[in-house]
Amino acid sequence: MPVVLSTPRLRLRPHRHADAPFMVALNADPQVVVYTGDGPLDLDGARRVIDYLHHRQHPFGVARLVVERHGEPIGWCGLRRLEDGELPDLGYRFFRKDWGRGYATEAAMAVLDHGFSRADIHTVRAEADARNTASWKVMERLGMQRERAWTDEEGPAVAYTLTEAAWHARRGAVLARLSRRR
Prior knowledge:
Layout: E1 5-6, E2 10-14, H1 20-28, H2 30-33, H3 43-53, E3 62-67, E4 73-81, E5 88-94, H4 103-116, E6 123-129, H5 133-141, E7 145-152, E8 155-163, H6 164-181
């Protein structure tokens, strides 16, 4: 049975093929994907992405985010292993109209709580384009530590990690900050 996570404002559930139009719309905004290396999707491409995100080698999945108050999908957040043996990677993406509302931090908290409840996850990583300050600021709010920076063909990038122990030490402060924002 698929895991469904909830926060005070959000519901996170695994993507289904019926979500392909949502994925197409999300990737259609060039500002949403400017730092991701992704581009527009058609419906078949969106279904392939959904299949990839839920392949057996990627057991953590990426969850579609819905705002509880109105049931509208606003983005996605989740953990996945990019390759066998790698640390689970935290990722998130939102429609531009939903930026700056604390949704990334709130969704990531639920995902991290769930991920660290598994016996096989003790460290999580996240990467972002270094020019995407909003993304790496979320990582820092969560207590992630910058591990490295580099430049590749797509531009400057940063990588962060978070241990289970650091998450448990930081979680209360993240929750308190989110509560003040609402």
